[in-house]
Amino acid sequence: MKTTEKAMMNQMETESFAKAFLADRAILSDRLDQYAIFPGFCDVHVHFREPGFSYKETIATGSLAAARGGYTAVCTMPNLNPVPDSAAHLKEQTDIIARDALINVYPYAAITVGQKGEVLSDMEAMAGDAIAFSDDGRGVQSEDMMREAMKRAKAMGKMIVAHCEVNDLLRGGYIHDGEYAKAHGHRGICSESEYAQVERDLRLAKETGCSYHVCHISAKETVELIRRAKAEGVDVTCETAPHYLVMDDSDLQEDGRFKMNPPLRGADDRRALVEGIIDGTIDMIATDHAPHSAEEKAKGLAGSAFGIVGIETAFPLMYTKLVKENVISMEKLIDLLVYNARRRFGIPLGESFSVWDLNEEFTVDPNEFLSKGRATPLSGMKLCGRNLLTVSNGKIAFRA
């Protein structure tokens, strides 16, 4: 069955369930013809910061923010304290998820102990509770270690999900090594720091047969490498984030809310990413929702922590800038936000949906976010689309 046909079938099933659910509870049912119903979005790359950094975000606040954004499934990255590098450490996170999550939250386990890249984690002991393995926030520097991780993941039928970054090529950079960095005296991060490790990992994935997924790609060279690898039959998928599709380094300002890793790159990179989602090289859109405290983001481009929030604005941004401007169809966007990620990661849709007023225009105001994080480069931008209701597992997770 073609993806488009499957999406249409699932969309109809979702709408049928949603209308029955809403009618039974007398919610919006008299006005449904004015609104759009979508299957629950799925984000395979978020940071909910708990355990260890609950001042930035918690499972409770992160899952509420996700529900407001129309998400009913997310995968949480392992840069926590303790790092989920053993069954006992992972259980600390899954216990909080079981207690506080409003939607389906699937944790990653770390590839290496402490995400230090020195010793492989107890992967086998965590395989039953981890959605996949990642050291997100850090690239695995050792080729031998990544090869062994892929072999072990392959044997367990699990995926390696990689933040690709060559430490020796960073050279103290913190924004893209492009025109803005040169004009304003900033230290830049070269694109090679990303694509060189992607190239290595694609070779290892081909060698080992491991299922491999690349996080938050940002560079045009990375897009082309993945395009070629797919043509060669490598078992690879990838994601990019909303901000990389609509912004580049010409949009930078001297403000920490424009600092993320990887950074906003050049206009050519942005165009290559858009082409990648159009032709299917890029499989899914993931937010890399990465909240920090106001203090951590108030130190300019050089001193602020890497990371921005985006799970509450992802759909309105993509709908406004891609669908309404006829870059992609709504059906394509739903594939990128729902079906492609769920198929690749084996995440069921279940009884989950959201209801949107696509005609409502609003101005992005971080003070209205439900996330603890407020740092977004979209502040003040006018977008279309307001979520009225999110249902996850047959229960209301968010209602405007």
Account of the protein in words:
By secondary structure, the protein is α/β, with parallel strands linked by helices. It has one domain (41-350): Alpha-Beta Barrel (TIM Barrel), CATH 3.20.20.140. It has 13 helices and 13 strands. Strands 1-11-12-13 form a 4-stranded antiparallel β-sheet. The protein has a 4-stranded parallel β-sheet with strand order 5-8-9-10. Strand 8, helix 8 (220-231) and strand 9 form a beta-alpha-beta unit. Helix 1 (3-25) crosses helix 13 (330-345), helix 5 (143-156) crosses helix 7 (192-208) and helix 7 runs parallel beside helix 8 (220-231). The protein is globular, with a radius of gyration of 20 Å. It starts with a helix and ends with a strand. The model is unreliable at 1-8 (pLDDT under 50).
